[in-house]
Amino acid sequence: MKKNIINLKNKTVGDIELDKNVFGIRKLPDLIHQYIRYQNAKSRQGSHKTKSRSEVNGRSKKPFSQKGTGNARQGSNKPPNFRGGAVSMGPVNRDHSFNLNKKERKLALKSALSTKVSEDKLFVIDSFVINDFKTKKLNLDLKKFNFVSALFIYSENGLDKNFKLASANIPRISTLNQKGINVKDLITYDKIFMEQKSIDEITKRLT
Fold it and tell me: How far apart are CA 40 and CA 114, in angstroms?
């Protein structure tokens, strides 16, 4: 399947053949949802914790006699019903992540890329090289694409320093190395701009 190659001024400069097995498969919403759950779970810290009875300050000695005091019997001054005592069944450090096999991850990425292509929201850019780092000039060029938010995916060593500086102050725009491509970003951003070289690198990795 052919796709036009354009420049940052939204002018066609050539075309490229996209692999149908990567950019032309059907949409798989269930798998995309599962991948996003997997991605969100991996990013959770799970570092919330409360102290157990063995960790709070206090004495393990019986605080008063078993009988004769009129109080309920106690074995130490560390239980939850005592001031300064432990928390009953409180949270502990844990890993929230779960496994998603390699084939499922690849298929979810292919489905997300194919969805953007089918919606005409994926653009192949010849290069992200610009002459200067002026934000105003780049912003005027990008307005021609009429997007709400945009993700610029570049190849290894393909991000121009001027482009990085110029795009830094434009809201709802992000840049991402093709090695870090993920379903959540592909779905979150309105339009995806991929450097021509990154197409080859992604295709090679997903086939």
Answer: 22
* pTM score, whole prediction: 0.83
What pLDDT score was predicted for residue 157? 80
Of 95, 130, 155, which closes a domain?
95
Q: Count of domains in the chain?
A: 2
State the DSSP string of 84-148: T-PPTT------------HHHHHHHHHHHHHHHHHTT-EEEES----S---HHHHHHHHGGG--S
Tokens representing 124 are: 């192949």
Q: Which of 62, 95, 128 is the last residue of a domain?
A: 95
What CATH number does the domain containing 145 carry? 3.40.1370.10
pLDDT for position 59: 85
